[in-house]
Amino acid sequence: MCASVKYNIRGPALIPRMKTKHRIYYITLFSVVLLGLIATGVFQFWPHSIESSSDWNVEKRSVRDVPVVRLPAGSPLPERGDLSCRMHTCFDVYRCGFNPKNKIKVYIYSLKKYVDDSGVPVSNTISREYNDLLTAISDSDYYTDDISRACLFVPSIDVLNQNTLRIKETAQALAQLSRWDRGTNHLLFNMLPGGPPDYNTALDVPRDRALLAGGGFSTWTYRQGYDVSIPVYSPLSAEVDLPEKGPGPRRYFLLSSQMAVHSEYREDLEALQAKHAESVLVLDKCTNLSEGVPWVRRRCREHQVYEYPQVLQEATFCVVLRGARLGQAALSDVLRAGCVPVIVADSYVLPFSEVLDWKRASVVVPEEKLSDVYGILQGIPRRQIEEMQRQARWFWEAYFQSIKAIALATLQIINDRIYPYAALSYEEWNDPPTVKWSSVSNPLFLPLIPPQSQGFTAIVLTYDRVESLFRVITEVSKVPSLSKLLVVWNNQNKNPPEDSLWPKIRVPLKVVRTAENKLSNRFFPYDEIETEAVLAIDDDIIMLTSDELQFGYEVWREFPDRLVGYPGRLHLWDHEMSKWKYESEWTNEVSMVLTGAAFYHKYFNYLYTYKMPGDIKNWVDAHMNCEDIAMNFLVANVTGKAVIKVTPRKKFKCPECTAIDGLSLDQTHMVERSECINKFASVFGTMPLKVVEHRADPVLYKDDFPEKLKSFPNIGS
Amino acid sequence: MQSWRRKSLWLALSASWLLVLLRVFPLLRLAVPARPRAGAPQGWPHWLDRELLQSFSQPGELPEDDPQPLPAPHGGSCDWGACFDVSKCRGGGLKVFAYPVAGPISDTQRGILASIESSRFGSVSPEEACLLLLLSLEAPAGECSPLPQQWNGGRNHLVLGLHPNFCPQTFQLGQAMVAKASPTVDTFRPGFDVALPLLPEAHPWRGGAPGQLGQHSPHPGVPLLALAEERGGWRTAGTESSACPRDGHCEQDHGPEQTHPGATLPNATFCLIPAHQPDALHFLQALQAGCIPVLLSPRWELPFSEVIDWTKAAIVADERLPFQVLAALQKMPPTRVLALRQQTQFLWDAYFSSVEKVIHTTLEIIQDRIFGAPAHPSLLWNSPPGALLALPTFSTSPSDFPFYHLQRGSRPAGRFSALIWVGAPGQPPLKLIQAVAGSQHCAQILVLWSSEKPPPSRWPKTAVPLTVLAGQRKASDRFFPHRALSTDAILSLDAQSSLTTSEVDFAFVVWQSFPERMVGFLTWSHFWDEARGGWGHTAEKANEFSMVLTSAAFYHRYYHTLFTHSLPKALRTLADEAPSCVAILMNSLVAAVTKLPPIKVPYGKQHLEASPPLAPGDPDPQPPAQDCINQMVAEFGYMPLVSSRLRLDPVLFKDPVSVLRKKYRSLEKP
Predict the structure, then answer these.
(1) What is residue A177's three-state secondary structure?
(2) For B101, phi and psi rounded to 5 degrees?
(3) Residue B29 has pLDDT above 50, yes or no
(4) Chain B: nearest CA to A695, how far in angstroms?
(5) Which of A318, B217, B239, B629 could form a disulfide with A334 if both were Cys (CB 3.0 to 4.6 A apart)?
C-alpha cells in the first residue's frame, strides 16, 4: 500500500491528465510504437544471420562492377620510401594496443578501380594471386572489418607486379586511402619489383612509411626488421601435381633449369657440364616445340626434351641464379622438388630470412664463384645433404606452396615483432614436424648443480595417521639439508593436532589444510616451497635413515632434472595381452620411482598441477591411485630422461599405498596400477618412461673401507 | 477508487514502456550502424569472376626480362659475397694474422693478441693468413695509427675494437669488416660486420666468472623487475606493475623498492634496459646475473646477433608500450621464464664471460661464413655447450655429437670401439682383449702400438675385428681422432688394465644413458692444497671424486677431436712430457664442456690389487702431474673439475636376493 501511495503522487507528474478518449488513443499509439520497436529489435537480432548468409550468395559481385575512383592529375604523391625506417620509428604500435591474444588486427580496404583524369585505368584491378592473398587474410584470425580497431592496413591496390602498373598514379591512389597517414602501418605486397632497364630490387612506387613485403630485396634496399622478404610465388605450384620424393642421392648431382640466364653465367654452367657430363645437367629454353605444348613446362638440352618441374626431382642440387631480378620463382619449384637450392644471387635477401634458417636448406654461392660451385658442393657431407633436401621440401610446404602460406607467414612475422614475448621460436619456424614430435626440450636444460646450502623442503601428505606422521617428521628432521617441512593435511573432517602436540624440530614446520581429499594435493606448487628440491614423503615412510635421505638429496643435486627416489618399479610389455604391465618384483631394471619417498624439482609440481595432459589429473583424483605413476610419466615425457633410484632395496612397509590401507599386496592393486600405465600411455600417445639398469649408491658403498670414514655409512641397513 | 485504478493502470503501462524502451534502446543503437552494412558481406568478397582473374605474372613475362649487365657492388656498403675473398681461405680454413700494436699496449690488447695467436686460427705471417686483423685503439679521435701496408682497401681485413668509438674513421674502413661493441643499428651491415658486446673495463681476459644463477627457477621472494640506472646501478621494484616504469623511468615510488647504486649485478627476474648505447653495459650484467634482459627498443645491434638466437634469452620490447610490456612480463608462464633464465647463463658462459671467448666467438663466426654450408647449425650455437666447444670440423650433424640427442630425438649408436694403448713394455694384452671382445656391445678392437718393440705378428682370434695402429709414442696420441674410430663410444684402455666382460657391459649400458660424460672405473679427486697454495690431486679412496682414469673409461669419440683441436697447444705438449697428465687433461676438458662430474661404476677389487699400474701408484707422488693440474687451471683460467659423491651400481647390486636373479652377478664376486 505504501508503495502505491507513492506512485499515486508521482503518476500525474509523469503523464498529463487527459480525456479518456485521448488516453485510449495514446495507449493504442504507444502500443503500436512499442510493438514496432520490439519487432525491429527482434528483427535485428534474430534473422540477421540468415539474412547475411543469403546475402552472401546474392552479394557475389563481379570485379568489373567495383566502384571507380578518378584520380586528379595533381593529387598528392607519397614521398619515396624512407630507408631508415624501423619498427620503433615508423610504425605506430599504439594502434595495436593491448591485446590478450597477442594478435594484430588487419584491415583490408575495399576494392576500387582507379582511373586517371582521362579515364585510363591505373593498373589491372586485381590479379588472381592478390585476390587469393586478400581472401587468405580475410579468412584468418588477423582480419578485422573495423577500420578504427585495425593495427595494420592492407590496400586492395594490387602491386604484386610492378610491370602491370603505372607508378606515379598508383602512388597517388595509395595516398588517397582513408587512413594512409604517410603510409604508417600500411603493408604492401610486391613480388616482382623494378623494371627495365635498371631493375630496382624494391618496388619503385613511392610509399613513404609503408612496410613492404617484397620478393627480391637486396641488402641495400631491405630495411632489416621492418620490411619482410617474401618468396616469388610460382604459379606452377597450383597447376602441377608433383608427388613428394624422399631424400637421397639422385641421378644428377647438379642441375640448372632456368631459361633466362645471363650469358656469362651460362658459359660457366656449360663449362661445368662439359667437365662433369654425367652428373651435371644444364637445361635451356626449347626452341622447336610443336604448337600447343606449354613451353613453360618443358626444358631442353640439345634435342632432349625434359618435363619441368618434374626434372627437378632428378637432381640433388639445383642452381637458382639471379636474373634481372634477384627473386626467382624457380626457387619455389626447386624447393618443392626436394632439390637443394644453390643460390647464386649476391646481396639477395632470402625469403623470410628474418625467421627461416636458410643454412639448413640451401647453399649460397657468391656469383664470382659460380665456376667453383661443383667443388664447393662436393665438400658437403652426404648426411647433411639429405637433411637439407628434407628441409627444403618442408620450407616449401610450410611457407611457399600457396599464396595463403606466404600471406600468413608474412603477417606472423609482423605479429612476432609487435608482440615479441609471444613470438614463435626458431624451432617452431624451422623444425619440420617429424623433428618436433620426436624431440624433447628439457625444461631444466642448464647443467647446474644447485648449491647444497639451499637444502630441500619435505612435503608429507597425511590423512589422519598422526602417530606415524609424527615419527616421520622426527626422522626427516634429522636430515642435515632439510630446510622446511610442509604437512599437507588432507582430512577435511578432522582438524590437525594442536600446535603444542607437534614434534619440536629445528626447521620451520607448516601445516597446509586442503579443501578436498585429493591425491594431487601432494603435488600442488605451494607458495611455502622456497627451495628447488622437494622431498615427497608418505606419512608411513619411517624406515629411511637420515644418511639415506641426505644422500638422496646429494644425488638429486647431481640430477636436478630427474625424479630421484627410493623404491623403484618397472613397466613391462605383456606380449600375451598386448598391453603394459606394472612390475614391483626384484628386477634388474627400473623405470619409475615411487613418490612415497622421492626428491624432485619443484617446477614439476607446477607442471603436474597445470600442464598435465588430458584428464590424467582428474582420473588420478577420482581413482585415488597412481599419482606417482602420473608424475613419473610427466617428468620422463618433458625431460626424456630416466629416473634415478638411490640406495639398495629395503623392506618398505606398504610401499604402494598412499592413504588407503591394506591394498598394497593385493593382486587387484597390481592390476589397477597396470591399468594406470596403459591409460597414461594412451593419453600421452607414447610410452615416455625410460628403462635403466643402474641405481645410485655412495662412492664407497660396500667397499672395503673403514665405515667411520664413509660419508654415508648408514645405507641399506 | 476508479481513478486510483486508472492511475495505476497508467502507471503500469508507463513503467512497462520505460522498461521495454530501456531494453530496446541498446538494440536500436546496435541496429542503426548495422543497417548500411546489412547488405555488405563481412570480409573480402568472393568475386563471381574469380576464376577469370589473370595471374600477376604471365607465363611469357618472366623469361622476357632478359638479364641486364649486372650491377656493380654498391658503393658505400659491403656484404660478404662482394667484399670478402673466400678463395684465400681455401685449404687451411680461417687463418688470422693480427698486426702488432704500435706504441704502448694495454693488458687487454696483449691478451687479445695472445689469444688469437694461441688459438687454432692463429698465423704468424700475413701472407699465409686469409684474414688480417687490426686492433683498434681506444684513442681519442685524430690519433689514429696509420693503416698497415697490406691494407688493400680493407679487403679481408677485420677491424676489431672493444669499444663503440672507433679509431679508423668509418670512411677509411672501405671493404674491411668491423667488429665493435654495440654498433648502432643504422651503420651495422648484417652478415658482414660483427656486433660485439660492450665489455666493462675490468673484464677477465681468460676463464671468467661463472654465471650468478644459483638455481633454475626464480626464488619466490625475488622482485620481478630491476631497472638499469644511469649511474650504473640497478633499481629493483616489486611485482606491482604500478611501481615501474613509464618511458623507462621509475619516478614514482610505490611498493617495496630499493636502489643499489653500488651493486653491479641485479637480483630480479627481469631487467629493463633502456634504449641507448651506454646501456649496453647493463645488458651483460643482466646476462651474468641470470636476470632476463628486457630491451626497450635498442638502437644497437645485439652482440653476435648473426648466430645467437636472442629470442631465447632476452625480450626485445617496444619502449612506447611500457604497460603492455609489464603486463606481458607478469603473465609470462613459468616455463618460459625458466627457459629464458637458463639460456642467459648458457650464453654468458659460452660466449661472454671472458675477452678470449668474445674474440674466439668473433673468429668462429667468420669461419662459419667461410665454410658456407658445412658450418655450425643454429642448434650448435644456441644450446649447451655452445659453438666454441662443438667443432664443425667434426661434423655438422647434431646427432654425431654427444650433446644433442634429446633435442634431436636420436640415440648414440649401440656399440663401442675398444682402444688399447700399448706403451713401453710392449706386452700384448691378451687377457684384456678376450675380456673386451666378449662384450656383446663391442664393435671392434684397436690396438695403438706405441712401444719400441715391434708388434707381434699374430693376435688372438676374436669375435670382433682387431686392428693394430702404429702409434706416435706420444701420450697425446691416444686421444687422436683416428679414422678407424667409427663408433660413437670409445672404451679407452691401457695394456695393463684388467676388466671383466661383465664390467665392460654394465659400464657401456650406463654410458648410453650419459653419452656426454666419461664413465670409468677408477677415480681420482682434486683438492685445494692450502699449504702449497695450489691444486693437488689424489688417488686415495675418498667419499667423492672428480676424475676417472682414462686407462679404463668409456667416452664419446668427439672428445678425441676436441682434445686434439681445441686444447691449447701448451697443454698438449705437457701431456706428452708427463703421461699421467693426459687423464687430468681429458677429464678437465670433458668437465669444461659438460660442467658435470664423470660417472663411476663398480670395479672388482681384486683387479685393483692385482694391477697396480692402473692406479697411479707411482712411488713418487708425481710432481710433474701436480704441476699438470695447476698448469691446466692456468690455461683454462678456472678449475673446471666437478666432484661427484655417487657411484652407479646395477639395480640389484649386493642386494639380499638370489644371485641367479642378478644380471651382473660377476660384479659382486669377492
Answers:
(1) coil
(2) -85, 130
(3) no
(4) 5
(5) A318
